[in-house]
Design brief:
Belongs to the major facilitator superfamily. EmrB family. The protein is mostly helical. Helices cover 80% and strands 0% of the residues. The chain has 2 domains: 2-189 and 254-479, Growth Hormone, Chain: A (Up-down Bundle), CATH 1.20.1250; 198-253. It has helices spanning 2-43, 47-50, 52-64, 68-74, 77-96, 101-129, 135-163, 168-171, 174-187, 201-224, 229-251, 265-295, 300-328, 331-348, 357-372, 375-384, 391-435, 442-479. The protein is globular.
Length: 498
C-alpha cells in the first residue's frame, strides 16, 4: 500500500513538471497570434507568408509527432522531456534575437521540434496514471492547463506589442523554459524497463515527406496559387509518400505509428471529428487578428482582451466537461457544442466594418464555449476505446492529426481569404470605377483604393468563416454516431512481417 502511494506520488510529480513544460510551449504558440499583423509590417511580408510562423510550427509538429509513439515506448519520460524542453529553450533564445523573417521562422521550427514531443508524452503519462473511470476528470485538468495558456497568451501579447517590440515575446519565455529544464534535470526521475525496439529509418523518411509535403502544399497555396506546379506537385508527392508510410506500418513488427488503432470504430470517429473541429477552430485564431488590427485598426491589447473571455470560459469549462463526460459520455456534449460552433461561425461570416466590439467578444466567447464541450470529451472517448498496448500510438496519432488538420485548416482558410479578397477587390473596384464620371485626384484615388482593399478583405474573411461553418457541420453529423467507449480487450498477436 505504501509502495503504491509512493509510486502514485512520483507519477503526480512527473505529471506536474510535464504540465509546466506543456504550458510554456502552448503559451509561446499563442503569443504570436496577436503579433502577426505587427510582424507583417516589421518584416514587410504578406498574410500568407507571416502565417508560416503558425503553420510552419505545426508542420514540424506534424512531421515529428508520428515518431513520438516509438520514443515514448523506448525512452524514459525524463530523457524525452529534457530533450524536448531543451530544444524548445534553444528555439526561444534564437527567436528573441532573430534579425530577419527566415531566422525567426527557423527559431519557431526548433521550438516546434521540442513542443512536438511534450504533448503526446504528457497525454501518455496521463493515460497510464489514471484508470478509465477517472480519465475524463484527468483530461479535464489537462485541458485546463492547455487552455490557460491560450487564455492569457493573446492579452499578454497585445500588451507587449503595444508597449514593447516583438522580441520581448520570446525574452519572457526563454528564462521560464530554462528554469523548467533545470527543474526537470534534478526533480524528474522515472524508471523504465529496457525495451528492444528499433526505429525504421524508411518510415521516418516517408513520414517527413508525406506529412511535410501535404502541409507545405496547402501552406504555399496562399502565395503561389492552387495552379502552381510547386503546390500541386508537393501535394501529390506528399499523398503518395503518406500512402507508402501507412502501408509500411502494417508490414512492420514494431511500427513507428500503428494505424491498427483505427480498427476501433470510436477512435476512428473521434479522429474524424477532431480533424474537422481543428480545421474550423483555426479560422478564428488566424483570421480575427487580421480583421481586428489590419482592418478595424483595433490595438493589439484590445484585440487580445477581446479573445480573453472566450479562452477563460474554455479553461473554466474544461474540468466541468471532464466530469460531465465521466457521467454521461461524449455524444450529448459534442452535439450541443458543435451546434453552438456552427451558429457562431456563421455569424462571423457576416462581419462588416462597423460590427461592434462587444458583439465580436460575445460571439468569440460563445464559440469557444462550444469548442470546450467537444475537444477533450471526443478525444478521451476515442482513447478509452483502444487497448492499453495502443495508448502511445493513440496519443501520438491524436497529436499528429491535431497538428496536421490545424495546419491544413489554417493554411486553407487563409488561402481562401487571400484568393477571395483578390476576387472581391476586382469586383468592388470595377463597380466603383463604373460610377465615376471624372478622373479622381491622386489623394481621392488612394483613399478609394484603401477602402476597396478593406472592404474586399472583410468579404474574404467572411467567405473563409462560411467555409469553416460548413466544415463544423460535417463534425456535427459525425457526432450523432458517437457511442460511449469501454476499454477494448488486449489484441492477440497479429501476423506481421519484417
Amino acid at each position: 500500500m505504501k509502495e503504491q502511494q509512493t509510486k502514485s506520488k512520483a507519477s503526480y510529480g512527473v505529471l506536474a513538471i510535464l504540465m509546466i513544460g506543456a504550458f510554456v510551449a502552448l503559451l509561446s504558440n499563442t503569443l504570436l497570434n496577436i503579433a502577426l499583423p505587427s510582424l507583417m509590417k516589421e518584416f514587410d511580408v504578406s498574410a500568407s507568408t507571416v502565417q508560416w510562423l503558425m503553420t510552419g510550427y505545426m508542420l514540424v509538429n506534424g512531421v515529428m509527432i508520428p515518431s513520438t509513439a516509438f520514443l515514448i515506448q523506448k525512452y524514459t519520460a525524463r530523457r524525452l522531456f529534457l530533450i524536448a524542453i531543451g530544444l524548445f529553450a534553444i528555439g526561444t533564445l534564437i527567436g528573441g534575437f532573430a534579425p530577419s523573417f527566415p531566422i525567426l521562422l527557423t527559431a519557431r521550427m526548433i521550438q516546434a521540434s521540442g513542443a512536438a514531443i511534450m504533448m503526446p508524452l504528457l497525454m501518455n503519462v496521463l493515460f497510464t496514471t489514471f484508470p478509465p473511470e477517472k480519465r475524463g476528470s484527468a483530461m479535464g485538468m489537462f485541458g485546463l492547463v492547455m487552455i490557460f495558456a491560450p487564455a492569457i497568451g493573446p492579452t499578454l501579447s497585445g500588451w507587449i506589442i503595444q508597449h514593447y517590440r516583438w522580441p520581448v515575446l520570446f525574452h519572457i519565455i526563454s528564462p521560464i523554459a530554462i528554469l523548467v529544464f533545470i527543474l526537470a534535470l534534478f526533480k524528474l526521475h522515472d524508471k523504465k524497463e529496457k525495451v528492444e525496439i528499433k526505429l525504421d529509418v524508411l518510415s521516418i523518411i516517408l513520414s517527413a515527406i508525406g506529412f511535410g509535403g501535404i502541409l507545405y502544399g496547402f501552406s504555399s497555396a496562399g502565395n503561389k496559387g492552387w495552379d502552381s506546379p510547386v503546390v500541386y506537385s508537393t501535394l501529390i508527392i506528399g499523398a503518395i509518400a503518406l500512402v507508402l508510410f501507412i502501408t509500411r506500418q502494417f508490414k512492420l513488427k514494431q511500427p513507428m505509428l500503428d494505424f491498427r488503432v483505427y480498427k476501433y470504430p470510436m477512435f476512428a470517429l473521434s479522429s474524424a471529428i477532431s480533424v474537422t473541429l481543428n480545421m474550423a477552430m483555426f479560422s478564428a485564431m488566424m483570421l480575427m487578428p487580421i480583421y481586428l488590427q489590419s482592418i478595424r485598426q483595433i490595438s493589439p491589447l484590445d484585440s487580445g482582451l477581446l479573445m480573453l473571455p472566450g479562452a477563460l470560459i474554455m479553461g473554466v469549462m474544461s474540468p466541468i466537461t471532464g466530469k460531465i463526460f465521466d457521467k454521461f459520455g461524449a455524444r450529448v456534449l459534442s452535439i450541443l457544442g458543435l451546434a453552438i460552433v456552427i451558429i457562431t461561425t456563421y455569424f462571423f461570416s457576416e462581419l462588416t466594418i462597423t460590427t461592434e466590439y462587444m458583439t465580436l467578444m460575445t460571439l468569440y466567447s460563445v464559440r469557444m464555449f462550444g469548442i470546450s464541450m467537444v475537444m477533450m470529451p471526443v478525444m478521451t472517448n476515442g482513447l478509452n476505446s483502444i487497448p492499453a498496448k495502443y495508448t502511445p500510438h493513440g496519443t501520438a496519432m491524436n497529436s499528429t492529426i491535431s497538428q496536421v488538420s490545424g495546419a491544413i485548416g489554417g493554411a486553407l482558410l487563409v488561402t481562401i481569404m487571400s484568393t477571395r479578397t483578390a476576387t472581391h477587390a476586382k469586383a468592388i473596384g470595377e463597380a466603383a470605377m463604373s460610377k465615376l464620371t471624372t478622373q479622381p485626384s491622386e489623394s481621392v484615388a488612394a483613399e478609394m483604393k484603401q477602402q476597396i482593399i478593406s472592404q474586399a478583405t472583410i468579404e474574404g474573411i467572411n467567405d473563409a468563416f462560411l467555409v469553416s461553418a460548413f466544415v463544423a457541420a460535417v463534425a456535427l453529423i459525425l457526432a450523432f454516431f458517437i457511442k460511449r467507449s469501454r476499454p477494448a480487450e488486449q489484441p492477440k498477436q497479429e501476423k506481421v512481417v519484417g
